[in-house]
Amino acid sequence: MRDVTGRLMLLDTASLYFRAYFGVPESVRAPDGTPVNAVRGLLEFIDRLVRDHHPDQLVACMDADWRPQWRVELIPSYKAHRVAEEHAAGPDEEEVPDTLSPQVPVIEAVLDALGIARVGVEGYEADDVIGTFTARATGPVDIVTGDRDLYQLVDDGRGIRVLYPLKGVGTLQLTDESWLREKYGVDGRGYADLATLRGDPSDGLPGVPGVGEKTAAKLLAEFGDLAGVLAAVDDPRARLTPTQRKRLTEARPYLAVAPKVVRVADDVPLPEVDTAVPAGPRDPAALESLAARWGLGGSLQRLLATLGV
């Protein structure tokens, strides 16, 4: 990986193209009638993000494996409800709308032709790629995602924030540590512990039965972090109700493995990529062909204009 300087913007690409797919009408189609709402919507998103936030570096982070086996081995229910088809020899197939799946290769081809760095690493989710880029960054980082799991990376001291789309990407929730403390009672580092205790049905993480978000926040405020909460379980003087102590004790097997599943990796072997915002298309001929084939029209032209091409 090359040194990253200046403001780095990391896109949770699947999160954004899913939002584009559901936010842009399916009536947006290529000349042959194929829906391209996710493709054009994502280009519009990237255009707006670059115009509004002026990143120096830009990476489209991908899910090379949306449900890594090493996470499933620790918690078998991890994302199990989203499996469309299991594959013994490779990643399971995720349940994706029929008219979105064919658009993903088009998105990848357009990003490559534009010269926007696109990074996915076998055996890891986009979250892990984002976590590793963030850990290695020397300047401020904007993480654009509709996934609250990445709140754990927020760090005011390092200038790391999450831009969470509320409506398209024109209205973003700028998530910093003060916002996290007001909303959840924790900072970025504490959010992973909160998520571990609370669980997350959308990811198949059970959490501790009977411990919701408010109770998890109170426990962390009282005992500092997950390790402190577990130490309190073993301390008869600790201020835990009998029910809390019982539930946390019974959940120890889950709590022994969940932190590794919940925390994003920060040691992914990233490839050598040029993360600079492109000043011109990497492959103009391929981009022109893609624009004509898929009818990318104004969405692509506006992005090119924003990039200064």
Outline of this structure?
The protein is of the alpha/beta class. It contains 13 helices and eight strands.
Helix-strand layout with pairing:
Layout: E1 8-12, H1 13-23, H2 37-53, E2 57-61, H3 69-74, E3 83-85, E4 93-94, H4 103-114, E5 117-119, H5 126-136, E6 141-144, E7 160-167, E8 171-175, H6 177-184, H7 188-198, H8 213-223, H9 226-233, H10 242-250, H11 252-262, H12 284-294, H13 297-306
Parallel strand pairs: 1-2, 1-6, 2-5, 6-7
Antiparallel strand pairs: 3-4, 7-8
Helix pairs in contact: 1-2, 2-4, 2-13, 4-12, 7-8, 7-11, 8-9
What report would you give on this structure?
With 309 residues, the protein is of the alpha/beta class. 44% of the residues lie in helices and 11% in strands. The chain has 13 helices and eight strands. The chain has helices at residues 13-23, 37-53, 69-74, 103-114, 126-136, 177-184, 188-198, 213-223, 226-233, 242-250, 252-262, 284-294, 297-306, and strands at 8-12, 57-61, 83-85, 93-94, 117-119, 141-144, 160-167, 171-175. The longest helix is centred in the N-terminal third of the chain and has 17 residues, at 37-53. The relative contact order is 0.17. The mean pLDDT is 94.
Number of helices: 13
Order of helices and strands: EHHEHEEHEHEEEHHHHHHHH
Q: How many individual β-strands? A: 8
On the 0-100 scale, what is the average pLDDT? 94
